[in-house]
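ARCHIVE RECORD
Type: protein–small molecule complex
Small molecule: adenosine monophosphate
Source of inputs: curated submission
Record status: active
Notes field left blank by submitter.
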Amino acid sequence: MLIFNNKAGLKALLSEHKKANATIGFVPTMGALHKGHLSLLEASAANNTITVISIFVNPTQFNNPEDLEKYPRTLDDDVKKIQSVNENIIVFAPTVDEMYEGRTQSGNFEFGGLENQMEGSHRPGHFDGVGTIVKKLFEIVEPDNAYFGEKDFQQLQIVRRLVKNYNIPVNIVGCPISREPNGLAMSSRNQRLTEQERNEASVIYKILAEAKTIYRNEGEDAAKKYVSTAFSGHPDFMVEYFEIADEETLLPATAAKNGKQRAFIAVYINGIRLIDNISLN
Ligand code: AMP
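STRUCTURE (tokenized, with ligand):
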């Protein structure tokens, strides 16, 4: 399997493949891979001649230095997991310097207001960091198709806006959320939870699923009230936000009743921040 640490080597190889009319699928990640990431790789490998995965813990998208420091880094294990999907997948695992060339800073991005909701309002600068790294990676890989998980639904919509704003010729493919058997959305940050916390964290999805039923039967206020009451029975959890929003604009669902809606949640469990979401339609 080919692993590149520098852009020049990767670009040279990909340009050979492009000359031979290969289609390039791309899966950007921060590593510590789990089955959710592998489902994106499988989707790419099934629909493209070549699949590239990037593994890069992007410092500019972390608003919390402790979260960046504690983010799991498991490259050797990651490579084994990638190999189990397909031996031909190309890995791009650059250093911070290779990506930022001594200037580890975000650009300023505007995503039509998508960046001001939920994750944007609770993680200042996060989406500027995401925009910066995804744009850089797209310029290096120049993929035909790029795969993003609905686990980070707001990020998926922001990437769609990014490619529109900058006329980047790539098709963005959204992929469903992979969950543990108990319902917990798979996440690299789950590695930081104890077994007991991972079990307890399954209530996040159970509460989201129940909130969906209540939203459909009784409306938004009842769903919100239910969520806040349900979490009051779990003192280890601190809900940062629970929002019901329009899928396109990410504005509160009450502002746009005709589109599709989704419920979004961010919860701290003993200091570890988890996010999840569920379609309400
Ligand atoms: P990350 O490594 O957390 O930056 O995630 C890399 C990509 O994998 C993003 O597009 C995520 O949305 C996606 N992803 C992360 N967790 C899951 C999951 N449980 N199911 C599906 N996709 C996921």
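CURATOR ANNOTATION: Residues 3-175 form a domain with the Rossmann fold fold (CATH 3.40.50.620).
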